[in-house]
Amino acid sequence: MVHTSRKKFFHETIENHAHSMTFPIYQTGSFQMPEGEHYRYSRELNPTVEELSRIISIFESSEATTCTSSGMGAISTTLLSLLRPEKKLIIPYDLFGRTYNFAKDFLREWKVNTIISDIGTDQVISHIEEGAIVFLETVSNPMLTVYDIEKISKTVHEHNGILVVDSTLPTPFNINPLQLGADVVIHSLSKFMSGHNDLIGGSISGSKVLIEKIDSFRRTLGTSMDPNTAFLAIRGLKTLGIRMENINSHALSVSMMLSNSGNFKNIRYPLNPSHPDYRLSTRILYGGSGIVTFDLSNESCSPEKFMRRLNLAKPANTFGGVNSTVSHPWTMSHRSISTEDRKRLGITERTIRLSVGTEEPEDIVKDIILASTEEN
After folding, report:
1. Which of 41, 153, 211, 293 allows an S-S link to 268, with CB 3.0 to 4.6 Å?
2. Can you state the angle between helices 361-373 and 240-261, rounded to 10 degrees?
3. Has this prediction a pTM greater than 0.90?
4. Residue 186 bridge partners (DSSP)
5. Residue 262's pLDDT is what?
6. Are 178 and 61 spatial neighbours (Cβ–Cβ below 8 Å)?
7. Hey, which residues does 67 pair with through a beta bridge?
8. Can you list the residues of the chain whose pLDDT is less than 70?
9. Measured between alpha carbons, how far apart are the two ends of the chain, in Å?
10. What is the dihedral angle through the alpha carbons of 187, 192, 195, 197, rounded to the nearest 10 degrees?
């Protein structure tokens, strides 16, 4: 086992003006000088956002963290700060659609040498070259490939490169990539980290040297988080351990019940023994997180009909909340990539991504089975 150490809880900083038990929202654009020398201007640094960064560093066991306006803001800021024309970027096919398009299309237009590998740890390693930046998801969305961060990071560092990982799906409750050798870990805070589907934000954690470089670029690029968002994210993180313990357990149960129902095909969940990366998952993940992916097998039930028939789980272009949601990657999260690339990923027109919430597993499964089988 190489399960990384998990931080379940944290203590908020007690500010020294009113000694509030909840860190306040500093709703201001600027700060009086010279007393405000440390902060100056909220696009650069805001106390509420700084407190959130401190808390995420606790969860990720990182030297430093900077927060951004969105998960894509975290990804674009990181890659733009580390890459230059002719520099090599290695990505696998199985990335979030917007991330994939940013690397494949936008960065190539800026003369970055983007190399796209087939899916899997060994496939990524086979493309690693001297000084390359490698970007991947620890557990990919939505097909749930699990990457061996320890193995990949060793090869990256032997070639003097940098490994950047998006760990949105498992969260630091289930894995700490920095402890396995990753250099930078990114989160979309909109998902499991905040857990209530009420904010858009991102974070970037790593060594002080790397984060200072990325943060300097963030201040110039303007992908800054506002203090209200930071306040909501801090509130959400207070229950990260409680929520993820519950969601881990529920998602595993749901995946097993769906497997046993005979109503669905290609059921994927990292800690379901049928998953191709099951052995790796049990070695590096504390829990499998809350995403279960499957294909509808009832040909008379289209994905659109299935989503309309649901009562408990709601169709939505997101995941990671306390309430269960479903999405149709073909027309939602991966709609922006080509049909050929979607098929290469294993995404079909009948693929469904389920984000398991805190409802009872039996109720979630009953809702899904009824929606996939009832006649209209």
Report:
1. 293
2. 40
3. yes
4. 166, 204
5. 87
6. yes
7. 203
8. 1-9, 36, 374-376
9. 49
10. 70
Domains of the chain and CATH, by start:
47-237 (3.40.640.10), 240-373 (3.90.1150.10)
95-to-100, 141, 200 alpha-carbon distances in Å: 6, 6, 19
Does residue 192 contact residue 168 with C-beta atoms inside 8 Å? Answer: yes
Q: Virtual CA dihedral for 48, 319, 331, 166, nearest 10 degrees?
A: 60
Q: Which of 153, 148, 178, 168 is nearest to 72 (CA)?
A: 168
78, exposed or middle or buried, with CB in 10 Å at 0-12, 13-18, 19+?
A: buried
| DSSP one-letter string for 172-199 | HHH--GGGGT-SEEEEETTTTTT-SS--
pLDDT of residue 16: 76
Order across the sheet with 184-188: list the strands: 64-68, 202-206, 184-188, 162-166, 133-137, 88-92, 113-117
List pLDDT tens digits, range 177-206.
999 999 999 999 999 999 999 999 999 999
pLDDT of residue 6: 60
Looking at 22-84, which runs of residues are DSSP E strands? 64-68
What pLDDT score does 15 carry?
75
Residues contacting residue 244 through CB under 8 Å, at least 6 positions apart = 171, 173, 174, 192, 287, 289, 290
φ and ψ at residue 43, rounded to 5 degrees: -65, -30
Q: Is 265 helix (H, G, I), strand (E, B) or coil?
A: strand
Strands of the sheet containing 291-296, edge to edge, are 264-268, 291-296, 351-355, 325-327, 314-315
Q: Can you give the pLDDT at residue 1? A: 44
| Cβ-contact 337, 100 below 8 angstroms | yes
Backbone φ and ψ of 211, nearest 5°: -70, -35
**Cβ proximity of 202 and 210 under 8 Å:** no
Longest CA span, the chain: 70
